[in-house]
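Exercise 7.
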Amino acid sequence: MKPRPFDYVRPDTADEAVALLAEHGDEARVLAGGQSLMAMMNLRLADPGMLIDISRIEGLEGIRDLGEKIEVGAAVTQNKLLAWPDLSKKLPLLAAALPFVGHFQTRNKGTVCGSVAHADPSSEISLSLATLQGEVVLRSKQRGERVLAAKDFQLDMLTTAREADELIVAVRFPVHAGRGVAFREVARRQGDFAMVAVAAFIEDKGHLRLGIGGMAGTPVVQRMAIGGMTDAIETIASGLEGYEDLHASAELRRDILRNLAPLVIAEAQKCAA
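Solution. The predicted structure, written as tokens, is:
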């Protein structure tokens, strides 16, 4: 199938983009990399009357070091962030997670913010953002700029708190140099959507954050004591209802989590040692 006819606009500035969103609202969709949007349009799962292409807007294509946070602009591709020289030092969890995102070819077009905007439950980038307690920066013509915590931005499967007239201009990841981190996932093939993805972030000697993707409509992040991890993992696995699709049953996902989480935690602890 192919998409229905639509208008295409490529604004020169972010202000022009938000003005177009204010004018056209739900009829408009933002195009950055298009790796998810174009597929949905081809299947008629999305039917916008206008595409607003932000991929060449100056100011949205940069990676900025803000000190305690790294700001990634809306036009930054996944491979551009993966190639950023300071990635392993300042954002080691992203350095571990990004190679699992799609394939080299899709990462050349897919953007970091676009993945967050799509809000897929199996998204490695959304899971990393939630685990690190990052932020999403939005801008509209009427209300200006607002910043949402990751946990408040993704509301459910493919559902976010972004209003129709808002543009995601950046996401911010807290710098976590020197912290113990690890990321793994189980998928049918490298680059496929994860059946279950697990991220671990060591907060201090006594506690860690465990992030889980693919088990619910949004990333699940649980803070736990390092001494009681076995019981905590079982409680999480048993408590998550999960969902079933063509990739895996809910019970299989729970079993994967029970086996994968201890491996990821052990890797993060080794990294922190």
